[in-house]
Amino acid sequence: MAESTVDHSWDVIVIGAGPVGENAADRARKAGLTVAIVEKHLVGGECSFYACSPSKALLRPVLVTHASQRVQGSEGARVDRDGVLARRDSWIDNLSDKGAVGWLDSAGIDLVRGTARLAGERRVEVEGRVYEARHAVIVATGTAPLVPDLPGLRDANPWTNRDATTSPRVPERLVVLGGGPVACELAVVFAAIGSEVTIVEQEDRLLGRMERFAAEAVAAGLREQGVRIRTGAAATKVTRPGQGGEVTVDLDNGESVVADEILVAVGRVPNTADLGLDSVGVATDEKGYLPVTERMEVKGAVGDEPWLYAVGDVNGIALLTHMGKYQGRACGDLVGARATGRPVDPASMTPWAEGLGTVQVVWTDPEVAATGLTEEQARERGIRVRVVEVPMDSAAGSGLQAEGYQGRARMVVDEDKGTMVGATLVGQDVAELVHPATVAIVGEVPLRTLWHAVPAFPSMSEIWLRLLEEYGI
């Protein structure tokens, strides 16, 4: 492609203006590079408008109300449906990205609106105009909800997380396909604001990637909140006669579930179709993700030097916003160093901590907060494992959080190294307790050293002392 065909040039072009792309762009800009970011929808992306932010905005009033009901003297709290929805609308600015665009302006990052396609080495085409990246193109296009090819499902106009987190309407009956974090969290929300909710999960339990005891606790909590759970049952057909009519989901065990809306929460697919990958010699993996090196360089891209990178969900490493932002920061720093001739620091410019396992919180009731490896994952890696468990109410602060506090904490230990490699906590308000374990895992802090990190009394952080004492320190 001739130079004269280029409409504009920047040092770096980022495709996708969600939190991951924003982080990559910000770090590259702070390195002194000129940066443009391309977005076809809302600046802020899926997380800000349809996933993390709205779902947690919806969940917080519900969880706070439940927590209040467990404390003597404040049992009268109730969930206000209209207030919950209004809070959600405020958090997503009524689907306006004006604030996010303002941040780009303040950060000195140029915004290009439209759908982007790669158009050769270091070239990006947007709505017929061709732009050049002098140093790097960073792909941060994320993923979209998966709607499987189930007979009748697509014709039934199903909800995905996008519909569920932005709907102004609360259906009387909601059937949820899937048993992962999205399914469980939204089940909590809709059960609390007036829906009769049924979860259909083809596996034998919910939250299949987490410790089984955590999944069982979440299932028990959902049932207490009135959610019906059908595990070990796969949907075989969906029927919905006419727009807005009842939805019937037939299961392979002969049962049927009838609802007013159906929410599909069975996974994600990468946004790599029509990205122009063939123009730069790149092929996706069998699931459509972009294969990358440990430095987020896209494998197979034409050119003598690395110039094409992929960060966040689109590379399939860890489909979590915070892990994608971590990749974006490391990638932006790496691109900045390479472009300006500064030394490349592998310790800070390679997101190596992903190999230690990811941290994740499921904001159900009870909450699940997990980091590092599960027991099963650790054993699969050949680690000589010891598992330590204690009830959450063994920490003095738990009883102050709720009368009859229920929960459990597990620590997975590498016996040869004497370090923690995984932890899972289940119970009310455990989300804020998990980061110390993440620090210990990433830092490979010996358990005997952790014993000297004294928790405040009477706080729930005392649970870490209880785990160490159970271990024998």
TrEMBL record:
Keywords noted in UniProt: FAD, Flavoprotein, NAD, Nucleotide-binding
Pfam families: Pyr_redox_2, Pyr_redox_dim
Coiled coil: none
Cofactor note: Binds 1 FAD per subunit.
Protein name: Dihydrolipoamide dehydrogenase
Domain Pyridine nucleotide-disulphide oxidoreductase dimerisation: 360-464
Residue sites binding NAD(+) per the record: 178-185, 201, 267
Family: Belongs to the class-I pyridine nucleotide-disulfide oxidoreductase family.
